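Worked example 3 (structure in, sequence out).
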């Protein structure tokens, strides 16, 4: 094997490991290994929440236009808590947002 082929193969292997490793070291698995509890829900009083206009009920926003966190491209459903859907959002790392919430950063899934 020549140097060029070695570098190509190494690059491909590294990329594959990064893709596979992402799942293995997801936030959920790290939290379970550390023995941590579930993340808390985002509070509308949170400074980031205020800056993006986060509200817990999309129906109370004139700007929502029917959009809510559960239909946003930044949102990933995790589970239901007390009958309400919650998930993760790229804007609020290490916190859960309600599926029926809304913020000004909403972007249609597509």
């Amino acid at each position: 094997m020549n140097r060029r082929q070695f570098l190509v193969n190494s690059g491909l292997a590294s990329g594959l490991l990064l893709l596979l490793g992402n799942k293995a070291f997801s936030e959920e698995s790290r939290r379970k290994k550390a023995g941590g509890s579930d993340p808390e829900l985002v509070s509308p009083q949170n400074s980031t929440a205020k800056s993006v206009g986060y509200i817990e009920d999309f129906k109370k926003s004139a700007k929502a236009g029917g959009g809510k966190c559960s239909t946003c491209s930044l949102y990933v459903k995790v589970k239901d808590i007390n009958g309400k859907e919650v998930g993760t959002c790229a804007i609020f790392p290490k916190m859960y947002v309600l599926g029926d919430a809304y913020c000004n950063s909403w972007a249609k899934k597509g």
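Notes: The mean pLDDT is 82. Residues 1-37 form one domain.
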